[in-house]
Amino acid sequence: MPGKRNPMQLSQIFGQARRSAERAREEAHLATMKAREWANGGKEDVVDVNYVDLTVQFIGASGLPKMDVVGTADPYFVAKLDDALTFVSTVVSNSLSPVWNELWRIRNVPSTAKLHIDVLDKDNGTVTDDYIGTAEVKISSTGTKELTLEGPSLRRNRGTMWVKIETVPATAAHPHIHPYTFDGPIRYSRHFSPTVGILAKMEDTHLYSTWKMFLRGVPLFMGDSVQPWNKNYKAAQTIFQGPASVAVKSTIQAAHRMLYARQTTNGFGVINNTHDVITILHGGRPDSGTSHRVKPAVYTYIISIDDDSFRFSETGAAFFVDFASKHALHANCAEAVRYSGEFHPRPEGGWENFDDSIPDDQVQWELVIDNNSGTYSPDPTGLASLKELFEYNFPQFKVHAFDFNDPRLAQSRDACRAYALSKRGVTQDELQPHPHLPGEETLQHSASRKVLKGGVGLGSIASEAFGYVIRKAPEPETL
Question: What global pTM score does this model have?
Answer without folding.
Answer: 0.81
